[in-house]
Automatic annotation (TrEMBL):
Residues 386-449, 450-517, 518-583, 584-648 form the PASTA domain. SUPFAM superfamilies: Protein kinase-like (PK-like) (SSF56112). This is non-specific serine/threonine protein kinase. The chain crosses the membrane at residues 360-380. It comes from the Bacteria. One of its GO terms (molecular function) is ATP binding. PANTHER family: MITOGEN-ACTIVATED PROTEIN KINASE KINASE KINASE 20-RELATED (PTHR43289), SERINE_THREONINE-PROTEIN KINASE YBDM-RELATED (PTHR43289:SF34). InterPro entries: Kinase-like_dom_sf (IPR011009), PASTA_dom (IPR005543), Prot_kinase_dom (IPR000719), Ser/Thr_kinase_AS (IPR008271). It comes from Kribbella caucasensis. Keywords: ATP-binding, Kinase, Membrane, Nucleotide-binding, Serine/threonine-protein kinase, Transferase, Transmembrane, Transmembrane helix. Pfam families: PASTA, Pkinase.
């Protein structure tokens, strides 16, 4: 416990917020390429699983592309058995995926604790895995890394397939080689991935077959001291029947495993959906308690190359080299150990019957075989089967009742969108209407979810890539992108979009985006020397705020702009422009001219920069002496202003 705590504390990501949105919590799991954390999506207030690429691996451009491809591949899959991928991003060189958080355990935990599993239990766990893979294969996606660690089992029993990190969209040629790089976990690799790196849906089928073998037996079919030895075994050795390790497994279960894991991919089921149908047939036989079902076993058995009819004979009249000895002409075939040291031809088992009896014996044998084959064919091919009734456009309840009338059972197999079948009604069955089905068998119902529709997500404030991914994940198309200035939305983020948020739309419909270029730049006019009122009006009209300072100036008239900062270039709306406004020349002290004669007083005031106005006292005596002045002596006044002197 202490070691785990120390690991969490020392983890550089625990507690960090990625992309300003995801607060990283406890570490959940660690793999070869990435580490998974429990995290909080602070924007949507929900717990997510955050898959973070290991430090330094982002330098590998190919790996980075594969990591990003995981989000794009998984986002294309909307299925209850696929772990949903919500978002993909990068934060200061750290690549991550935000995925659905599935609390519970993995299939590896189940195998470790409970294997070997009963065949019915193993098939019940495999079915949702195949359902998820069927959706992937329908979308042209190959998982390439099916293993118990990637099968999650929630607390409520829901099974989900995770980690499409190695997935690739299938090319038209069916080849998905990645420059010679062998992907996937070696214990579950299909032979073709080892030999030439190619993969298609049948490669996932092989891995699913290995998964089933491990659930049934508690061990892997191929082991070795090194991964190369295990990979070699996949190419050169068949997967053994599970019953060789675990008694009591019916032959048709053995045949199912060996068909899915055939080394020749052409002998495997074409994809997960085909394998699902075979699994359901096997599950039905198990429910009936059949120890064997020759027809089902025969259908699933991997075809074996027939022994050659013509071979080289030895001198003793024996055919060798196939594991059998066959006497010439009409004598009996007896198996021997081919190539065994000291092996000698067996004695002839029977002499030739007299020629006259041979025709009769042959006729009786043929008739007996025909009767037996006919009886078996009637029982296994006709008597046990009936036709699947038409259950389309019925509710599941009504479909179950109608199937029950002919002794058949139903189960909800899947759901799908339909433009023609109303929501909640049966849109398809497995087997299809009219197809052969075993009496008392089970019909899988595919129920309509109604027309496929999606609500436009909230895109405002998202960066352009995130907005596109949000639309891609619900099969909506990014339409016209208009770049425009915004005073409130940062550059590169969505300002608005149409249709508006929560509008219901069909898949493939377009959503138009308006993306911010950031604030609009505004040219700054130079108002230096202009009257302050004119300058203020012009700058405010341009969208700027004014920061005004007044100061005395001997050269710039009062009220005019002495300087402006900045006075050129561009600013943004609501930015400040500083103005320094002239208060005119500085105030000067008025000299004391009282008791001076008028001529002397006039000169003193004029020399000080003032104008002089002379007024006579009411009791003027003609002395022309200054009896008073305004402003008074010692006061300060503007140069050029008038000083009134009163004379007596």
């Amino acid at each position: 416990m202490t070691d785990d705590v120390d690991t969490q504390v020392s983890d550089r990501l625990v507690g960090r917020v990625l992309d300003g949105r995801y607060r990283v919590g406890a570490r959940v799991a660690k793999g070869g390429m990435a580490t998974v954390y429990e995290a909080l999506d602070m924007r949507l207030d929900r717990v997510v699983a955050l898959k973070v690429m290991h430090l330094g691996m982002g330098d590998d451009a190919e790996f980075g592309r594969r990591f990003v491809a995981e989000a794009r591949a998984a986002a294309r899959l909307s299925h209850p058995n696929v772990v949903a991928v919500f978002d993909q991003g990068e934060d200061d060189g750290t690549l991550f995926l935000a995925m659905e958080y599935v609390p519970g355990r993995t299939l590896r935990d189940v195998i470790r604790q409970s294997s070997p599993l009963a065949p019915g239990r193993a098939l019940d766990l495999l079915m949702p895995v195949l359902s998820a893979l069927s959706a992937a294969h329908d979308a042209g996606i190959v998982h390439r890394d099916i293993k118990p660690e990637n099968v999650l089992i929630a607390h409520d029993g829901t099974v989900k397939v995770a980690d499409f990190g190695l997935a690739r969209a299938v090319k038209p040629t069916g080849q998905t080689a990645t420059q010679g790089l062998l992907m996937g976990t070696v214990s579950y690799l299909a032979p073709e991935l080892v030999t030439d790196g190619s993969a298609d849906a049948r490669s996932d089928v092989y891995s699913a077959g290995i998964l089933l073998f491990e659930m049934l037996t508690g061990t892997k079919p191929h082991t070795g001291d090194t991964p190369i030895q295990v990979a070699y075994a996949h190419v050169h050795a068949d997967v053994p029947p599970p019953s060789a390790l675990q008694a009591g497994i019916p032959p048709y279960v053995d045949a199912l495993v060996q068909r899915a894991t055939a080394r020749d991919r052409d002998l495997r089921p074409a994809d997960a959906r085909v394998l699902s149908r075979q699994v359901r047939r096997v599950r039905s036989a198990l429910e009936e308690g059949l120890p064997d079902d020759p027809e089902l076993t025969g259908d699933l058995t991997v075809p074996i190359q027939q022994l050659r009819d013509e071979s080289e004979y030895d001198d003793g009249g024996y055919e060798r080299g196939t594991g059998y000895v066959k006497l010439r002409n009409d004598t009996i075939v007896v198996p021997i150990e081919s190539g065994a040291p000291g092996a000698s031809p067996p004695a002839r088992v029977a002499a030739r019957p007299p020629r006259r009896w041979r025709g009769l014996i042959a006729l009786i044998a043929v008739l007996a075989l025909a009767i037996g084959a006919g009886t078996a064919g009637w029982y296994y091919g006709i008597h046990r089967y009936t036709a699947t009734p038409v259950l389309l456009n019925l509710s599941p309840t009504d479909a179950t009742a109608k199937a029950g009338e002919v002794g058949l059972r139903t189960t909800l197999r899947d759901q799908g969108f339909s433009e023609t079948v109303p929501k909640g009604q049966v849109m398809g069955t497995d087997p299809a209407p009219g197809d052969r089905i075993r009496k008392s068998g089970e019909i899988g119902l595919i129920v309509s979810k109604g027309p496929e529709r999606y609500r436009v997500p909230q895109l405002a404030g998202l960066d352009l890539d995130s907005a596109k991914r949000a639309l891609d994940s619900i099969t909506l198309v990014t339409g016209k992108i208009t770049d425009t200035y915004s005073e409130t939305v940062p550059a590169g983020r969505v300002i608005t979009f149409t249709p508006k948020f929560d509008t219901v739309m069909k898949p493939g419909n377009t959503v138009n985006l308006w993306v911010s270029l950031g604030k609009r730049p505004i040219d700054v006019p130079n108002m230096t020397g202009k009257q302050v009122g004119e300058a203020t009006k012009a700058l405010r009209k341009a969208g700027f705020r004014i920061d005004r300072t007044d100061q005395y100036d001997e050269t710039v008239p009062e009220g005019n702009v002495i300087s402006q900062t900045p006075n050129t270039g561009t600013l943004f709306a609501k930015d400040k422009v500083k103005l320094v406004v002239s208060k005119g020349p500085a105030l000067r002290e008025v000299p004391n001219v009282r008791r001076k004669n008028l001529a002397e007083a006039r000169k003193m005031l004029t020399d000080a920069g003032f104008k002089v106005k002379v007024e006579q006292a009411p009791f003027h005596l003609g002395l022309n002496l200054v009896a008073g002045q305004n402003p008074a002596a010692g006061r300060k006044a503007k140069p050029g202003s008038t000083v009134i002197v009163t004379i007596v």
